[in-house]
Amino acid sequence: MKFSGIFSAFRLTIICLVFFSVLYPLAITGIAQFAPAKGKGETVEVNGKIVGFQKIGQSFTDSIYFLGRPSAVNYNAAGSGGSNKGPSNPDYLKEVQARIDAFLVRHPYLQKKDIPADLVTASGSGLDPDISAEAALVQVKRIAQVRKIPEEKVKQLVEKNIQKPLWGMFGTEKVNVLELNIELNSIR
Length: 188
Prior knowledge:
It is built from six helices and five strands, in the order αββαβαααββα.
């Protein structure tokens, strides 16, 4: 009588192993074949060289580029995730304050209240490739000064790269930072 429970548990374990280790991954791989780039990620190329991925953020630290959203996982796609620290966590608050201070050093013409939240807080995945339109526009003056190009030209580039919400109502306006920085390099 005791062995029937063990055999049932063993049988369930084998079924779960086959399903979750073989059948489910095969099904997801099959579905991915209908996605862009067949589930391998949409790469972004410049002059035939892959410079990044469309849906994965990356770090831009040079002043000549627009800054992206901070990452809780240092832009490592192998381990995406947020910091899991709440807004009352003292370590988290210190981290955000350090980001604010660093941003204000690069943008001395701004005040703390002018900084969009997405420039100092990491996304839930830690890999967000987009920033809000406001976050891009607030950096226009710095980019224009550093690159010695007219501010209006940089602003027009940002406005050209703003992606509107789905059907004009689902989501917010956003800008893909990698694509914006690639186009920025083409401005003279």
